[in-house]
Specification:
alpha/beta; Rossmann fold; Arc Repressor Mutant, subunit A; 2 domains; six-stranded parallel sheet; globular; WalR-like
Length: 198
């Protein structure tokens, strides 16, 4: 079995990789960010994607959504430090098979991999309860524009990166601000980030 581990924090990735190599006989490949992971997913065969959520380039949830669109049989397990309701709900919507916090024992992760490969879904019980929380009001287009705005990008830069008109960017950001009752794009990005919607 081949596992792709996508994690941008080198120390965390190295520790997880070492634990997995010591504790199982599965072949492990590492990716340092979402874009690198996507390239590997497009060119190599994997059985499981173990991914963080927040990474440079594509997020773990964007990778899961891409796999879902491709109707891939690769199982996705999210491992994160953030147990936000928005993340859990979006992960479930993207067909993620497992959702664990990074402070879980390695035995829990190994058991989760086995269960997921057997066709089961493994979600930490507290996180599952969180998923019943608030609904994410943002559309994917609003989310992408807001994420870039939160990184300090200008309207023109966002338009270039998303291949859309500046007016369209302003519309997306205005909609997001209205939905989140924010006075500006920075506050909207902060609110969405706290809720796990970005």
């Amino acid at each position: 079995m081949r596992i792709l581990l996508a994690e941008d924090q080198a120390m965390v990735r190295g520790a997880l990789a070492s634990l997995l190599r010591l504790s199982s006989s599965h072949e492990l490949v590492e990716a340092a960010d979402g874009d690198s992971a996507l390239k590997l997913l497009k060119t190599e065969h994997f059985d499981v994607l173990l991914t963080d959520i927040e990474m440079p380039g594509r997020s773990g949830l964007e990778l899961a959504a891409w796999l879902q669109q491709q109707q891939s049989k690769i199982k996705v397990i999210v491992i994160t430090t953030f147990g936000r309701s928005g993340y859990v709900r979006r992960a479930l919507d993207c067909g993620v098979s497992g959702f664990l916090l990074k402070d879980a024992p390695v035995d829990d992760l190994l058991a989760a991999i086995d269960k997921v490969l057997a066709g089961k879904r493994v979600i930490d019980s507290e996180l599952a309860l969180l998923a019943l929380g608030e609904q994410d009001p943002l559309s994917d287009k609003e989310r992408r524009a807001l994420r870039l705005a939160g990184e300090g990008k200008s309207t023109a830069e966002i338009a270039t990166l998303l291949f859309i008109a500046e007016g369209t960017v302003r519309n997306y950001l205005s909609e997001a601000m209205a939905k989140l009752n924010a006075v500006n794009r920075v506050e909207a990005a902060r609110i969405a980030q706290q809720k796990g919607w970005l």
